Amino acid sequence: MRELVDKLQEERRLEKQEWICLIQDRNESLDEYIFEKARSERELYYGNKVYIRGLIEFTNYCKNDCYYCGIRRSNKKLERYRLTESQILDCCDIGYELGFRTFVLQGGEDGGYTDEKIVHLVQSMKALYPDCAVTLSIGEKKKESYEAFFQAGADRYLLRHETANANHYRKLHPEELTLENRIQCLMNLKEIGYQTGCGFMVGSPYQTADTLAEDMMFIQNFQPHMVGIGPFIPHHQTPFADMEGGSVELTLTLLGLLRIMIPNLLLPATTALGTLHPRGRERGMAAGANVVMPNLSPIDVREKYLLYDNKICTGDEAAESLQHLKQTMKDAGYEVVTSRGDFIHK
Ligand code: SF4
Asked: Is the shortest distance between the CB of 64 and ligand 1 below 6 Å?
C-alpha cells in the first residue's frame, strides 16, 4: 500500500482502482505513513500555521429537503431564524476584535435572503473590514448570482459536492436536486474566480469504497482550493435518523490523502470531526488539515443550526474560546494566526 501513497505524492493522482485499494485496506500503520507525508507537504506551503475562519450561521431556512440534513424544509419541529444584516455585522465586529480575518456566511438556501440582500451584506462587510476575506456557503445559485456576489467582494465559496456518483447523489437528495447542477455550480464558481471549496460526508448512507474513490477522482480533476470533509452524523428528525454514522479514522485517512494529492489545499478539521472525538481537531491537524472554523453566530441561535445531532458549539468550537483553541493548537505544535489565510498558488 505504501507504494500507492508514494505514487500519489509523486504524480498527485491515482487511478480509481488504486483509490479503492487505499480506502478499503487502510490500517493504522499505513495511516501513520500517510500522515507523516501529509504533514511534510503542508509544511512546505503553510508551515505550522493554522488559519481560523469565523463561522456565521445566518439563516436556518432552507427550501431544500436533503435527506441527511437537520435544517431541511420538512423538519417542522425546527424553530427557524434569520439574522438581520446588522446582527451579522455585530458578529463580524466581535470576530474582528478576536482576530478573525475571514468570515464564513453559511446558511440554507433561503429565499428570504435575496441576491440583492446578499450583495448588500457582502458590500457592507468588505467596506467595514477591507482586510478580511468573505466566504459564502449558501448553496446552489444561478451563475449571475455568483457573479454578483463576487463583484460585491466575496472571495471564496464553499459548496460540498456531497458525492461524485449520480446514483449515490439520488439516494441522498430529492429528485429536484441533481449532481449535474451541483457540479455545474462548482465549475461556475471556479471560473468566476472564487477560491472554491467542495467536499463530502465520510460514511454517508449508501457510500461505498467505490463512490469514495469517485469523490477522490473528482477532486483530483477539479482541483479545488478548499475541501471540507467530515464524518456523517445522523440527525434524529431526518429520514436518515437510524443510519450508521461515519468513521473518524477514515475521515483522518482521507484528510491525509487529500493533503498529499493537493499539497497547497486549504483543509479544515471540521466541526463534525470535533463532535465525534474530543481531540478531533488536533487529530485533523496531525493528519494534514490547516484550517478551523470556530462558531461566531450569536449564542442563542447556535442550537437552531443543528445539521446533525449533538453538534458542538461550545468549547474550542466557539469563537469566544479562541484563547483556549490557540493554546490547544500551540501544545500540539501549531500556531493559530491572524490572517486571511488565502490559498497559496504553486
Ligand atoms: S444540506 Fe444545505 S441545501 Fe440541503 S437541506 Fe440542508 S441546508 Fe438545505
From this structure: yes
pLDDT of residue 300: 82
pLDDT in tens, 293-331: 998 988 888 877 877 777 766 666 676 788 888 998 999
Q: Does residue 140's CB lie within 6 angstroms of at least one atom of ligand 1?
A: no
SS3 201: strand
Q: Residues 6 or more apart from 49 whose CB is under 8 A from it? A: 290, 334, 335, 337, 339, 341
Check if 189 has its Cβ closer than 6 Å to any atom of ligand 1: no
How crowded is residue 2: how many other Cβ atoms within 10 Å of its Cβ? 11
Say how many Å lie between the CA of residue 315 and the centre of ligand 1: 25
Indicate the Cα dihedral angle 292, 204, 237, 160, nearest 10°.
Answer: 50
pTM of the prediction?
Answer: 0.95
CA distance 328 to 47: 17
| pLDDT for position 307 | 79
What's the gap in Å between 338 CA and the centre of ligand 1? 30
129 within 8 A of 81, measured Cβ to Cβ: no
| Other Cβ atoms within 10 Å of 171 Cβ, number | 15
pLDDT in tens, 166-222: 999 999 999 999 999 999 999 999 999 999 999 999 999 999 999 999 999 999 999
Write the pLDDT tens digit of every residue in 39-75.
999 999 999 999 999 999 999 999 999 999 999 999 9
Q: Which domains does the chain show, CATH number per domain? A: 30-337 (3.20.20.70)
